[in-house]
Amino acid sequence: MATNIPLTGVFRVTCEFKKKGNWACGWHTGIDMACDNDKIYSSCDGEVTRTGWDDSYGNFIVVKNDTDGKYHWFCHLSKINVSKGQRVSRTSVIGIMGSTGNSTGKHLHFEIRNESNKYADNSNPAEYMGIPNKIGEYNSANYQIGNSNSNNSSTGEMKTLSRNTNLRSEPTTKASAVLYLANTTLYVLQEGVAQADGYTWDKVRIRVNGKEGYMINKNYK
Ligand SMILES: [Zn+2]
Question: Residue ranges per domain, the chain?
């Protein structure tokens, strides 16, 4: 299984996306992450569109995501293993973490630029990876991408939660609940599978770890 995270194992988020501060645009356009394992994996399947040096970003690699045409930037690298035009996948080690450019310590600055590929036109990389946009320690093993197609009798429509929401182990409010943070994405496997506690329940699957459970119909947005 793979993840949308460019690091593997235990890693730390050391600076959040869009934190206000002393950046050229006034906010942090990516997310900073550090890890004992220095290997940097591509966070998507796609094509290397650029590699090079920038006084701020240091050694950097840009990969264009096949799926949505957005640009994934991997910065401050000590080593670049790929070259322009090369095809990469989530299992490709594309570079080695470093502290080149404007950096105070070894870390990866990972940012996702929208189709414009312009500075400060970004998507939230934490949302893409399925992790909280919050300083803390995480383990990539908890954010494996579930197979969204197996066992899926419906369209597998994906929803992005806009607030903290409980997924239930059974279709009732009395069942054990797991809190999912805002920006968690999920597939609706089947709508209206049960009636309980005065609600209609849908069966859903969390994208990042493949966990299945039940949520109150139309109440998970
Ligand atoms: Zn950064």
Answer: 10-143, 157-216
